[in-house]
Amino acid sequence: MSRIKFRRCALFVVSLLISALLCVALMGMTFAAEEGGSDQDPLFGGGEGTSALPYIIENEADFLLMMDNVNNIIAPDGYFGKFFKLVRDLDLSGKTLNPIGNYTYPFKGNFDGMGFSINGIDIVKEKDSYTGL
Question: Is 103:133 a contact under the CB 8 Å cutoff?
Answer without folding.
Answer: no
